[in-house]
């Protein structure tokens, strides 16, 4: 996923399905300097972690 799209999703009021390793996640924050995002699985909001933006896939 590109940085600009990840930022749009993170700031959106709409629910946009994004997958990481075939699991739905929520993007909390995008770090422009490192091309990473702070995310958590939708079913485990207490389990936050960082991922490379290139590993995120938007479901259409």
From TrEMBL:
<dbReference type="GO" id="GO:0030435">
    <property type="term" value="P:sporulation resulting in formation of a cellular spore"/>
</dbReference>
<dbReference type="GO" id="GO:0030436">
    <property type="term" value="P:asexual sporulation"/>
</dbReference>
<dbReference type="InterPro" id="IPR012610">
    <property type="entry name" value="SASP_SspH"/>
</dbReference>
<keyword id="KW-0749">Sporulation</keyword>
<comment type="similarity">
    <text>Belongs to the SspH family.</text>
</comment>
<dbReference type="GO" id="GO:0042601">
    <property type="term" value="C:endospore-forming forespore"/>
</dbReference>
<dbReference type="Pfam" id="PF08141">
    <property type="entry name" value="SspH"/>
</dbReference>
<protein>
    <recommendedName>
        <fullName>Small, acid-soluble spore protein H</fullName>
    </recommendedName>
</protein>
